[in-house]
């Protein structure tokens, strides 16, 4: 699978989780915890393969003229990873602040996904070409598998 398609599949999973989370209430404590934990795991793996494999290839192929999208995407990741998601994980799922954190996370991620899919991914497809996207996709799939295995081992 090529790198762009792999990342788009991740986006579908994340959007589904966010949608489910947005429909929970303060009474759904267990469901909220499960969804947030799944989101955390999915986003951790996605961010890692994107920042370690895809983004550097994109930046190298595009050079300075495409660096703005690269830096903006990394900053959006940092905002989610360092601020919004940790706040959500620390917030009692039986409270209204939880719903607020979840809504902000959903908005940030939907914005990020939209920019990647409308701007970065089409540019990457042109810059990198079919063969390089396939090679990156294989590398990203292998890294994803290793990360998920590592998470499963740590959870056991």
Automatic annotation (TrEMBL):
Hemerythrin-like domain boundaries: 3-124
InterPro entries: Hemerythrin-like
Gene3D superfamilies per record: nmb1532 protein domain like
One Pfam family, short name: Hemerythrin
Signal peptide stretch: none
PANTHER family per record: HHE DOMAIN PROTEIN (AFU_ORTHOLOGUE AFUA_4G00730) (PTHR35585:SF1)
Protein name as annotated: Hemerythrin domain-containing protein
Organism: Zestomonas insulae
Lineage: Bacteria, Pseudomonadati, Pseudomonadota, Gammaproteobacteria, Pseudomonadales
